[in-house]
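Fold description:
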Amino acid sequence: MIFSSKTIVSNSDMIKNYKACREKAEVYGKLFILKNNQPDAVLFSINEYERLSEIIEYYETLDEDEAIKFIESIPRNGVQRRYDNE
């Protein structure tokens, strides 16, 4: 996953500045929250949450063979979405 430092906030910054962090999540789709310099949580915008929910709901309708093919079709490297307000 490729992401910008603009999408990383500390846990304490999230607590102190929730509104600003929420607005940042709207711009970038998601924010990565660190606690003690380690990944702790992700704050999704509602649009990103809905997008991911649709993918999950589709995946849950697949039988085992279709699910395996779906997972195998996901690129592991190469073109990935950038999270830096392109």
